[in-house]
Structures are given as C-alpha cells and as structure tokens.
Amino acid sequence: MAHWFIEIINTKLNFNIYLSAIFDIILIIIYQMNQILLPLLVSVFSLNFSSCSLNTKASSSDLDKPKLVVSIVVDQMRFDNLDKYKESYSNNGFNRLIRDGFNLKNNHFNYVPTVTGPGHASIATGSTPKTHGIAGNNWFDKNTQKDVYCTTDLDYENLGGNAYSAKMSPNNLLVNTLGDLNRIENDMNSKTISIAIKDRGSILMGGKKANAAYWFYGKDKGEWVSSKYYMEELPKWVNNFNNSGFVSDYIREWNTLYDINTYKESRSDDNNFEKSFKGDPSVTFPYDLNMLKDLNDGYDLLKETPFGNSLTTDFAIEAISNEKLGKDQFTDVLTISYSSTDYIGHNFGVDAKETQDAYLRLDLEIERLLNFLDSHVGKNEYTLFLTADHGAAKIPAYLNSIGVKSQNIEEGTVKNILNDVLFKSFGSNQLISKIMNSQIYLNDYTINSLNLNLDIIEKTIINTLSQLDFIDKVYTSNEIINGNFDSGYELLIQNGYNIPRSGDIIFKLKENVISYGNKGTTHGSGYTYDTHVPLIFFGKKIVQGESNVKTKITDIAPTIAKLLGLKQMSDSTGEVLGFVIKD
Questions:
Q1: I want to staple 540 with a disulfide (CB 3.0 to 4.6 A). Which of 66, 396, 517, 535 is the partner?
Q2: What pLDDT does 145 receive?
C-alpha cells in the first residue's frame, strides 16, 4: 500500500486531483484496518470533548494525591503514652498507625510556652509563636492593659451557645495554615473542616480560610457551636446532630473500660495527689455523671471524661459524611483535636488510672475513625497524621512522695514577692501589670509617670527572681530578641517570643517545678516531659517505618504540603521530612 500511496502523490498534481487522492487514501486505510480506526477516532474525540467542555477529569497528579488529609491532635499526649499502654491497645487503633505508618519517635516542640493555643497554631502553620503570633492561650496587651484570649474576636457573633461561649475567630493568627494553603491553591474548591471540644483547638488548626470550625458548648443542652466568621447559620446536619440526643447519652457512669486490676501501668486509684469533680470528694472509680452533671456546668462535665473524645469522633464522622469530604478530585482537610485527655490529665495527672482509661478508650475511638475512613473515603485514599499539642509534667506531690524533688508555685506568688521588693525599692507596687506564661509585663505608664529608671527596675526584678530556689534563669526581652542562639532553652524562648505580644522579662522554672495548684498538674515548659510528643504519618503516599531522628513540630505542615504538591509554605520555619513520603 505504501508504494501505491507514493504513486498517487507523484501523479495527481493539481489541487482537485490532490484532494481526490487524499480521499482515496482514507477509504483504503479504513478498508485495510477493517474498521479499527473508526472506534479509535470516536474514542479520542470523545475524550477531548469531555475534558475540554466539562473539565471534570482528574489529572494524573490529582489521582496521586490523597482525597482527604486528616489531622489528629491529642491534647496533652506525651510520647510515652504510645509505649506505656501498647500491650493494652487494640491492634487497629494506635498500634495500627505505628505498624502501618511512619513513627517519628523523637519529635519535639521547638519553643515555649508549650500550651494548647500555640501548639495547635504551630502544628497547622509550620511556624512558631515568634511568627504566627499565638504567644499563649492568653497574653497581655500593654496598649489596652487587658488580657487577650487567643481566639477572641468581638466582631463576630456566635452560632449556637450563648455569651458564655464567647465570640471567636482565627484573626489573631498572623499566617496561613496548611488548610488555608490547600484551599488557596485549589481555587477554594477544597474544603477545610476543623473540630475540637476546645474552641482554640478547632479554630487555630482550621485557619483563616476554613469552611467551618466547630467546638463544644455544654452549659445548656450540650451542642456543637461555631462563629459567624465562617457562615451565617449552622448547617442542617449540625442542628440535627445537636438535637439527636447523642450528648445526653454520654451522661452515664464512668467506670474503667477493663478490669481496673489490669491497669498496672498507673498508680493506685486512691491517693491524695489528684483533683476530682466538683461535688465528689472521691478520686476513685466509678464516677456517676448523672449525679455530678448539675454541679459541674451541665454537659461541660463531658469535657473532663473520655466521653468528650467519643462525642468528638461522633461529630467528626457526621462531618465527613455530610460535608462529603474526600469525594472529589480536590483534596480536603479535616482537623480533629481530642481535648478531653488534657482536662483529665490536669485533674488526675499523667500516671492516674483515669488517664490510662482515657487512653485505652481513645485507642478505640482512633480505631472507629480509621474504620470509617476506610469505608467512606477508601483504605488507601487518605493521609493522616497524629501528634499532640504538648505533653505534661508529673504531679509534684506524687514526685515528692517517691523521693524526686518537685514543687508547685502559683504565678500569683511570684507577683507578690516582686511587688514587696519593688515597693520597698521604688515606693510602688504597681510596676508590674501582669505575669503569665512565665513572663513579666511591666507597667510602662506607671514607670514613666513616676520617672523611674527602667534598667534599674529590670535589674532589681532579675536579682530577686534569681535568688528564688524554684527559678533557674531569668532573661530580659532584649537578650531574647537579639540573642544568637543555636540550641538550648534560650532558643526555645526565642522561638516562642512574639515581640508585640510577649513580656519584658522571662523566667525559666527549674525542672519538675510547675505553676499550678497543689493537686493535679500542668505543662508549658521546655523540658522533655512537655516537648516530647508523638508524631505518626499514615496512609496514602506514606512510607512504612520508624526513626529516632530528632524532628520538630513545625516540620508537619511543610511535609504534608510537599506530599500534596503545594508550594512551599512561605512562613513555615519547619523542614520537609521527605523520607516519610513515597516517591
């Protein structure tokens, strides 16, 4: 046929004859191919028409991305909670994540203060308070002389709840989150939904461009609420959930999930180190939540029990279903913060039977969530990471009982000591406006009006603090701002120091000293018990394995951004952990 084709081209030279030759060639080719070409042409034209006119087909790069990214933050989860109860966990909760995911066993916060607001903001943005601006759960505004809560915004009304639940938005967050970047680069076609018992746990993880952030308000009937920052009214599915009776079903007896005698990893249930619920002098199982409800702010009581975590899973599953997360070619982001472990840890401590029971129950919540994601999104169609917003110290009274020197100090105690010294030295006890987050905010107005020397006041405060047996070191803001620190506690302070929102003098408590009451415990320091938290990546495009390489909490967001093929997060100070991502 090739020879015949050349012959025609060489002999049929004028235009009409040329067209006729071409037509002859097409007929012969169709005949020779025995009608194979026609269906092929139809298929090609159909594909081109579909992609050009409807633009609904996912590209190969889209197909390689997870349909959904799930962020799980466990409030106040120390790294040792993974190993401590490992034998009692199911095979398909925490242990599944460890077995099938990538377990980073040496992951730390790289700043102080290690508290909830900054923790969630740092996980979500890949930056520290120095950059993202969430300098604490609260900070002091020296211009207005008022405390600022990290998510308060009086410009937006509540959706649900009442004045108690306060007016909220993410506007105090100064940079974009991972969810924000994902929505921006997908022309706002992706969704970001954020859920937590705590408002700050939800709002700061979701970011400024989240479709919705929901948190729990328990004063009246117990409901999930939001802010008009995100929407004009709650979706129908949220109202349906709030009216479903789910919440009241959890007001029941809290007893141990398994035989309490098997809880060998925790101390005796009956002790004098723990705080209990209002109206219940006992710190031992079981707890009758029906009896305690009215004495403990109604359904807010659930926050301080494992059932708060169960309620969070219930609501997250409803969000995945009703918002159709992971159901199109645009990767969605769901953030879930399990807050109840923090309330329980504060009250009962890290070694309590109550804390162990909370983690054994949370393990089953993780399993339930994973099972739902497998069935609804697809077993290898989502990527998930699990971490924590901070750890916690052991209860000082308990440590002292076993011979480990420890102490609890109220920040009010520090202020009283300093005010006495300052009054004797300068004739005023109004030179300090506030002490919070181990930082001292000086009262510039009073200092200037009395014509006092700021340097001398700072030196007096530093000398006084340095003589207290529970304080290790003291720094001025200038030392922190201008210091060239490569490592150590000073670098943690510097990374957590936001110039407009942080204090004038910063002090470091000694190890095993906490600023808290005489029962229960807290967090906030740069010691390992507060900084060392889990980090597990799991799911689509994640390598299976583990590592003891030291990683930072700020590495999470840029790593997920890289996995999704997003541009570099411009405000992130973290590094991409490329070794956890499959090629």
A1: 66
A2: 95
